[in-house]
């Protein structure tokens, strides 16, 4: 697969690492399989040194880096080093022309040499470093703590910090050459992780890719969640349990705590950690404060993990017995409903910050709750898939999302406007109703705003 996106990241690295009068220190981090190493290698030149660390004792790591540096400076190969500081300082003495040394999977090095961040701090603080230094890692927790925690030695030392994120939806369509509907369906499984896209490319269709990549203990992504969690925590049981419970339909904190047999207060910290790593998201109804709202619900935020805990984890016993066909039948029968949830998320993302129907919109969200019914003394439960206020506060966009066969648009529109008439936040604002539909409806009535999958994809290109 071709290299996609990452223009801003490449530009930032090139800016920082271009030889100048002073050496620079850059930090790159993000969850595994996002292409961090590939990104860095595209910026490095043949004069630079790239070292991939492993989970090895410090003496072995030291020797391996020494051998690599000896290819550039033969004197390095003849020396004996008692530790990292001696090696890095000798390299500094030998450096005559500025180059870049990249230490990839840096957390492995720190695991076996906890003193390494302090050593780097001392060397950087001398202001005499002659080579650029880049550290990279997949442990989001450790990398963030090393760089962003005021108590850590490397705090405030970085000239550039790149938090590498999943690639936006449109590039999946470009990379796999898909139609709009297929792009939404594939993204609902693989998300914005380029390594998953590369693996998917080896299969002729989505069904074969699911079977070959996820259905069974021998497949490449069968243990993917555990690997992701191990990058950021020593024990994965709690995180995996939380994900399984949320995917199983427990979305409120009280429900999650009940299913896990724990006090709700004990789960706030681990849930916050999963949110910080973008594996879980917390949704609150439109118009409520994220800090004060007591109606927040939790959803799995990463598409791959959502698919895994929805379809793979509950069927592990069947997959261990080789019953792939049975599990595949379940996936096919429930896939439309599964994709519809991600369709809603993508619709909200497409509207957020965008200019549509004459307005620039803010951050889109959902809304759910009870409102007074037309019958006095009665209440009705109501929900909006998309609600967003214009930046100027004059308008409110309300949307209904459907991921089904062709619908009768006039009926959906009528129901949407009926809900609007009961919506407490609609008073005094111009209402912009929008239908987000998978397919063209059976009727296309004049004046009804409709957004289709390709429109959503196009709206998510970032310039």
Gyration radius, to the nearest Å?
Answer: 26 Å
> How are the strands ordered across the major sheet?
2-3-4-1-5
Q: Tell me the major beta sheet.
A: 5 strands, parallel
**Rounded mean pLDDT score:** 93
Give the structural class.
alpha/beta
* Strand content range: 15-25%
**Poorly predicted parts:** none
C-alpha termini separation: 22 Å
The tally of strands reads 14
**Helical coverage, percent range:** 40-55%
| Overall form | elongated
**Contiguous helical run count:** 21
Structure write-up:
By secondary structure, the chain is of the alpha/beta class. The protein is 45% helix and 16% strand. It contains 21 helices and 14 strands. It has a five-stranded parallel β-sheet, sandwiched between helices. Strands 10-11-12-13-14 form a five-stranded mixed β-sheet, sandwiched between helices. Helix 1 crosses helix 2, helix 10 packs across helix 17 and helix 19 crosses helix 21. The mean pLDDT is 93.
């Amino acid at each position: 697969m071709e290299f996609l996106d990452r223009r801003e990241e490449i530009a930032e690295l090139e800016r920082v690492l271009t030889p100048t009068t002073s050496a620079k220190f850059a930090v790159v981090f993000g969850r595994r399989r996002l292409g961090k190493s590939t990104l860095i290698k595209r910026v490095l030149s043949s004069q630079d040194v790239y070292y991939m660390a492993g989970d090895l004792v410090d003496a072995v790591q030291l020797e391996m880096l020494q051998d690599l540096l000896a290819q550039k400076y033969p004197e390095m190969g003849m020396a004996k080093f008692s530790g990292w500081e001696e090696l890095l300082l000798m390299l500094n003495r030998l450096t005559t022309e500025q180059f870049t040394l990249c230490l990839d999977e840096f957390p492995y090095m720190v695991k076996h040499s906890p003193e390494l961040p302090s050593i780097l701090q001392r060397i950087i603080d001398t202001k005499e470093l002659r080579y650029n230094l880049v550290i990279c890692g997949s442990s989001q927790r450790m990398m963030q703590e090393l760089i962003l925690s005021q108590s850590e030695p490397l705090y405030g030392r970085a000239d550039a910090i790149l938090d590498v994120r999943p690639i936006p939806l449109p590039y999946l369509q470009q990379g796999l050459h898909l139609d709009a509907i297929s792009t939404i369906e594939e993204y609902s499984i693989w998300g914005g992780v380029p390594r998953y896209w590369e693996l998917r490319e080896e299969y002729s269709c989505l069904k074969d890719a699911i079977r070959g990549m996820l259905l069974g203990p021998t497949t490449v992504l069968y243990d993917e969640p555990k690997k992701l969690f191990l990058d950021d925590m020593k024990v994965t049981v709690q995180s995996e349990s939380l994900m399984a419970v949320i995917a199983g339909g427990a979305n409120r904190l009280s429900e999650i705590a009940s299913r896990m047999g724990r006090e709700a207060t004990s789960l706030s910290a681990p849930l916050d950690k999963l949110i910080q790593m973008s594996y879980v998201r917390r949704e609150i109804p439109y118009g409520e404060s994220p800090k004060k709202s007591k109606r927040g619900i939790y959803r799995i935020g990463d598409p791959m993990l959502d698919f895994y805990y929805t379809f793979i984890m509950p069927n592990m016993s069947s997959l261990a017995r080789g019953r792939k066909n049975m599990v595949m039948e379940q996936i096919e029968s429930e896939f439309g409903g599964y994709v519809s949830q991600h369709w809603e998320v993508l619709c909200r993302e497409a509207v957020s910050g965008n200019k549509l129907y004459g307005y620039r919109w803010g951050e889109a969200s959902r809304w759910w709750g009870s409102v007074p019914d037309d019958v006095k003394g009665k209440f009705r439960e109501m929900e909006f898939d998309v609600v967003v206020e214009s930046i100027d506060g004059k308008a409110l966009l309300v949307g209904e999302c459907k991921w089904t066969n062709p619908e009768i648009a006039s009926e959906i529109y009528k129901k949407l406007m009926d809900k609007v008439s009961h919506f407490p936040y609609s008073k005094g604002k111009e209402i912009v109703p929008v239908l987000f539909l998978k397919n063209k409806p059976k009727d296309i009535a004049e004046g009804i705003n409709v957004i289709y999958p390709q429109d959503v994809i196009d709206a998510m290109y970032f310039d």
